[in-house]
């Protein structure tokens, strides 16, 4: 998403010079005698978006929960329209005009949109729920946001994640929320769905709603926000208009190092070896004409727009949605992988883009999750691997109380490390990574990049799928661009974002490598 397609984000506006809708001053919070927020301050003005960023553990969630009434502050002051407030419950925050849209939605899937919007506050007539009024009011809220495709009678469980998010926003507006806090609102959205959210936020701004926006995606922060506040280790280290900041300064404030240090160089001793995996003429219902080679120690980046076939390619290679035509060879020998179990037995591993839905069992412990693949495919190795898992978790720097802790209690970055531990336990020869850093903070991203480099040094062949072009360009030895289920072309790591996009959207711009040779177009 580029800033040209985003709502205007002016750092100086009439609303920003007036009394803030919400102000928090010197907020402090302790848990079990340990202070986790150290005098944090925040001001949010009507018709503006205030970005809140920081690594996992920086204190963002704690501050959000204090604003939402989930936690009570231990120090400092909070005001709504210059009136001191002290919320002890989310209901109190809602009555004061403050609503929060958390990553985990609070919706009932078997009920309609209107029923969810007015849950517990149903309009009544003669003692009965006034269904007609409830529908009419819900439709009016949808119309006010310019939302199409969602009806008041639609079952919430049938809606996409983006549509469910809009329902949460509609719920907030139905109680006349003047401040809406959004926690990682695009973490599970496609590019098209992100564009819809951008438009909704633009509409909310135009109606005078104040928005607190929490995200790890820095491009969104710069696209949307008027002011940006950075938290680090529970303290406020920066709060400035967006126009006075750039990504380099923002990242340095968040993690203490420049953005140029994001992508580590290859580990000493890394060598690209012989071909490990080869596909010729591969295809199925989603893919066609797939030709690729993957070599030991190589990081092959795969770029393309949402729906171009990137994830489908990994699913086909791993055996989840296998190729139905073409030929696949592994170390020169023909193979047929018809299921994920067969893929694991052949030395393949797939880190899926949805770690919570398909990568982990959130209700189980860290240890049990790390043993999932071994128990399923190589049960005889379970006892030996159980003794080795703590060492793998330690090498990945997983932060937790112990390996018996439930995975759901970990941060997004630590959850992703547990997914990686699950696959490292199988000693894979080939690793497929689908959006491996989605929804994790910049510090955790660097840790994942270092692991990828270390795997390459060991001779593991890697395919990296990512929607973040800097990630592909910063990590890949070669780049394949996909469009409409096909490989549209191949680029060197020296390619620019513009050149990658040219292939992804099918434009005829000529792409040239450092040695002035035209890169192949398919």
Automatic annotation (TrEMBL):
ABC transporter domain residues: 22-258, 270-509
Region feature (Disordered): 1-21
Subcellular location(s) of the protein: Cell membrane
Annotated Gene3D superfamilies: P-loop containing nucleotide triphosphate hydrolases (3.40.50.300)
Lineage of source species: Bacteria, Bacillati, Actinomycetota, Actinomycetes, Micrococcales
SUPFAM superfamilies reported in the protein's UniProt record: P-loop containing nucleoside triphosphate hydrolases
Assigned GO CC terms: plasma membrane
Source organism per UniProt: Brevibacterium aurantiacum
Topological category with respect to the lipid bilayer: Peripheral membrane protein
Keyword set, alphabetical order: ATP-binding, Cell membrane, Hydrolase, Membrane, Nucleotide-binding, Repeat, Sugar transport, Translocase, Transport
EC number(s) given by UniProt: 3.6.3.17
GO molecular function: ATP binding; ATP hydrolysis activity
Tree of life domain: Bacteria
Protein name, as recorded: Monosaccharide ABC transporter ATP-binding protein, CUT2 family (TC 3.A.1.2.-)
Pfam families given in the database record: ABC_tran
Keyword hit for Hydrolase: yes
């Amino acid at each position: 998403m580029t800033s040209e397609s985003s709502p205007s984000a002016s750092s100086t506006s009439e609303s920003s010079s007036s009394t803030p809708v919400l102000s928090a001053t010197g907020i402090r919070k302790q848990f079990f005698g340990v202070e986790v927020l150290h005098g944090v301050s925040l001001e949010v003005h009507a018709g503006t978006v205030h970005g809140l960023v920081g690594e996992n553990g920086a204190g963002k969630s704690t501050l959000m929960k204090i604003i939402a009434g989930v936690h009570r502050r231990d120090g400092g002051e909070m005001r709504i329209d210059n009136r001191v407030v002290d919320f002890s419950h989310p209901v109190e925050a809602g009555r004061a005009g403050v609503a929060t849209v958390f990553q985990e939605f609070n919706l009932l899937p078997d009920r309609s949109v209107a029923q969810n919007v007015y849950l517990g506050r149903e309009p009544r007539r003669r003692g009965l729920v006034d269904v007609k009024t409830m529908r009419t009011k819900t439709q009016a809220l949808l119309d006010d946001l310019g939302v199409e495709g969602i009806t008041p009678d639609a079952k919430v469980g049938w809606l996409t994640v983006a549509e469910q998010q809009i329902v949460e926003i509609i719920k907030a507006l139905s109680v006349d929320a003047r401040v809406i806090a959004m926690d990682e609102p695009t973490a599970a959205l496609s590019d098209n769905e992100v564009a819809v959210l951008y438009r909704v936020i633009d509409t909310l701004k135009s109606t005078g709603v104040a928005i607190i926006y929490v995200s790890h995606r820095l491009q969104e922060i710069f696209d949307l926000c008027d002011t940006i506040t950075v938290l680090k280790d529970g303290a406020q280290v920066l709060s400035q208009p967006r126009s006075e900041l750039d990504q380099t300064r923002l990242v340095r404030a968040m993690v203490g190092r420049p953005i140029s240090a994001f992508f580590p160089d290859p580990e000493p001793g890394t060598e690209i070896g012989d071909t490990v995996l080869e596909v010729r003429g591969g295809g199925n219902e989603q893919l066609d004409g797939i030709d690729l080679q993957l070599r030991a120690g190589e990081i092959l980046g795969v770029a393309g727009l949402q729906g171009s076939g990137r994830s489908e390619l990994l699913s086909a290679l791993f055996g989840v949605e296998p190729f139905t035509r073409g030929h696949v060879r592994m170390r020169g020998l023909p193979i047929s992988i018809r299921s994920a179990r067969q893929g694991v037995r052949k030395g393949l591993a797939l880190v899926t883009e949805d770690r919570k839905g398909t990568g982990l069992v959130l209700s189980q412990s860290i240890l049990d999750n790390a043993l999932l693949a071994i128990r399923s495919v190589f049960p005889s190795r379970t006892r030996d691997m159980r003794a080795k898992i703590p060492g793998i978790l330690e090498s990945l720097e997983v932060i937790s109380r112990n390996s018996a802790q439930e995975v759901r209690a970990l941060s997004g970055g630590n959850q992703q490390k547990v997914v990686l531990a699950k696959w490292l336990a199988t000693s894979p020869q080939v690793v497929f990574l689908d959006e491996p850093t989605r929804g994790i903070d910049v510090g955790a991203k660097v840790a994942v990049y270092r692991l990828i480099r270390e795997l390459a040094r060991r001779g593991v062949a890697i395919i990296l799928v990512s929607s973040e072009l800097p990630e592909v360009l910063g990590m890949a030895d070669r780049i394949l661009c996909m469009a409409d289920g096909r490989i549209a072309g191949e680029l060197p790591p020296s390619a620019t974002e513009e050149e990658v996009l040219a292939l992804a959207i099918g434009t005829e711009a000529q792409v040239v490598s450092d040695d002035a040779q035209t890169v192949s177009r398919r």
